[in-house]
């Protein structure tokens, strides 16, 4: 490996900006896979949404693919994505559905998100900080779980009752939940501890297998090396909803504006100048119109 190649290979570890580090790493990975066989995906609008979902899933369920390979995507219609994370904004957690787990949907989701990141596509906003914490090796005991991380409103109500001072009956929902999850019966002496344990179980312990599958999917795309070495890139991949809102300036920042050149459109022959001369358009002028449209549209 020559000095230039070695410099480009390690540059992503040194640049201070995490977004820049992510792009450099992705470019390096894509460069390695540029000569690999292309991945192919075809979707047809005439098919049902379920069939479209299955077409997407059939690609991302496959093991052993080189996700940095070029992607050929033929779209003949819109697509729909199965909802496998649930909850409120910035507190999404994996669904506890056994069917989704058995169908490898969480590994598929990890591959989709990692694949999108590699190609400078959308990130995945709104994931619970507690899930992100465990996903990247944090312990259960230190996971920043809050009541808003629990999408089940019945369990939320039970946790809130235990955190309060109201009395509870032996045959109520609190006892039933504790019994079903093998926790001791609630009492005045253990109710605060029990509230924390039930919440942790609902948010983290019930979703551990889903989180592991999700991580495996991310690893399959090759970006885990980046995320392990550059923890500051994690919020770029999993931002908060408010940080992921698209603004005109964000769009403008993603556009590589051309220099001032002249483009000749031979299909727009200027009849006043003669058949051998053509209408010309200054790219700078067109760019300024586009900028105004993005800023004010």
UniProtKB/TrEMBL annotation:
<dbReference type="GO" id="GO:0004842">
    <property type="term" value="F:ubiquitin-protein transferase activity"/>
</dbReference>
<dbReference type="InterPro" id="IPR035983">
    <property type="entry name" value="Hect_E3_ubiquitin_ligase"/>
</dbReference>
<protein>
    <recommendedName>
        <fullName>G2/M phase-specific E3 ubiquitin-protein ligase</fullName>
    </recommendedName>
</protein>
């Amino acid at each position: 490996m020559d000095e230039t190649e070695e410099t480009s290979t390690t540059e992503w570890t040194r640049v201070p900006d995490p977004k820049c580090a992510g792009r450099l790493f992705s470019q390096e990975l894509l460069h390695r896979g540029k000569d690999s066989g292309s991945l192919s995906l075809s979707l047809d609008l005439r098919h049902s949404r379920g069939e479209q979902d299955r077409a997407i899933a059939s690609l991302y369920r496959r093991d052993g693919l080189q996700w940095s390979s070029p992607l050929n995507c033929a779209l003949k219609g819109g697509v729909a994505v199965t909802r496998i994370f649930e909850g409120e904004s910035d507190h999404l957690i994996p669904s506890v559905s056994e069917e989704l787990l058995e169908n490898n949907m969480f590994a598929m989701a990890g591959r989709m998100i990692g694949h999108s990141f590699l190609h400078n596509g959308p990130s995945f906003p709104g994931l619970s900080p507690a899930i992100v914490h465990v996903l990247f090796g944090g312990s259960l005991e230190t996971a920043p779980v809050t009541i808003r991380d629990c999408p089940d409103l019945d369990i939320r109500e039970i946790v809130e009752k235990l955190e309060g001072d109201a009395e509870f009956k032996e045959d109520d929902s609190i006892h039933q939940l504790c019994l079903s999850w093998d926790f001791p019966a609630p009492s005045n002496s253990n109710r605060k501890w029990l509230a924390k344990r039930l919440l942790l179980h609902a948010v983290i312990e019930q979703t551990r297998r889903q989180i592991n599958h999700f991580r495996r999917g991310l690893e399959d795309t090759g970006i885990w090396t980046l995320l392990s070495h550059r923890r500051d890139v994690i919020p770029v991949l999993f931002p908060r909803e408010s940080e992921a809102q698209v603004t005109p300036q964000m769009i403008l920042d993603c556009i590589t504006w051309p220099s001032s050149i002249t483009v000749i459109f031979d299909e727009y022959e200027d009849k006043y100048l003669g058949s051998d001369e053509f209408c010309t358009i200054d790219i700078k002028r067109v760019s300024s119109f586009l900028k105004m449209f993005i800023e004010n549209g």
